[in-house]
Amino acid sequence: MRLKQQQLCGWGRYPVQACLCYRPEKLNELGPLKPESIPRGQGKSYGDAALNAGGNVILTERINRFAAFDPQQGTVTVEAGVTLAALLDFLVPKGWFLPVVPGTAGVSVGGCIAADVHGKNQHQYGNFAQSVVSLELIVASGETLEISREQHAPLFHATTGGMGLTGLIKSAKLRLLPINSSYMLTQNFAAENLDALLDIFSRRKEQDPYSVAWLDCLGHGTQLGRGIYTAGRHAEPDEIGRDGRQPLAWHHRSRPLPLTGPLSLCLHTATARQFNQRYYKKHAARTTPEVQPAQKYFFPLDRFNNWNRLYGKKGFIQYQCVVAEAQAAEAIRSMLETLQNAKVPVYLGVLKRFGSHKSGLLSFPMPGYTLALDIPLRTKAVFATLERLDEIVVQHQGRVYLAKDARLDSATFAKMYPDFGQWRSIKQEYDPQGLFNSSLYKRLTGESGR
What we know:
By secondary structure, the protein is α+β, with helices and mostly antiparallel strands.
């Protein structure tokens, strides 16, 4: 096992501190575990979930071997460090897909379980944990437990969505989704304002397996919250057209970003508003169903490496929340108006619908609508506006996504996650000394790892 020390970045108001990083080369090098440790997959969390200021970080990228594939049962078993990109490279040509995928394939299976990620089909398929048959977990005692909904069920529900704080995931057995092509059949529906957009989501919730909406966060008045709803489903071979197109072809590759300058040099509110106007008109006119590669539909940003550098050295914050369905229109409208009144630009907004599926005690999804906003971090004044958004979310019975959070305080966290007390009891049962810890945990609770 190699040991290296490196400076990992801090966020927001919190100081930067070093973490000791351990990188096991094989599965049998995972133990014995160091005190005050947190597992890290691909480090794609937008905040401090995989940081541990003054403590240890266990890098799992090389714990990435395939253990078993059962096409008869439709399952695959892999080590926690396997990425979704590698998994789909293997599965798609064989006619299988993952039931739930997030917006990037560059994440690890272990990270997807720890954050209990969701995709464009949460309203029908649920979270990533719905596809987990079982997993192997190294707990604080050093023992490896096989956990599932039937075995050690409380620990399973504390681990899915538990942000790596209940133990170290060694491997997982996943249930797969059969597909007949690697293409998606998509269709756009334009909505002139937020009410119209939510109405489309509501009317089509049963018929569209996948759905997502681009939201114009700069629209005013009667155009506030206008957007483009895009429905999707897996295409059949006779629908993909084009002679020579292979039904199960899969080429998920990234390329260097063609631009080198920060987005802030060329993108301002006026130009962004013009872009949104053109984008809306273009996609509103494209109403007939279209066929596109699945990787383009699911992972649009994976086309470029380091796309986040477009925001410059100061970077950006992605604020993602979910609010109750009955209060969604009021809450989202209030958030957009708050951002506009504070003159905080939002250049990308994404809206999705959530269903009743919930896996872990700290899992993010709940019935309602989730709004994700990319906010350039130009001045510290942004944080005051984000705290106002927190208040709106709490008022409308919602919560913020921990996998993308970098600045939530402990009091607000407690209001958003009422099952935290039950989760903490399970953590204390299996980790009484607080061996598993992270900067996220310390920030949200004011505790050590206990």
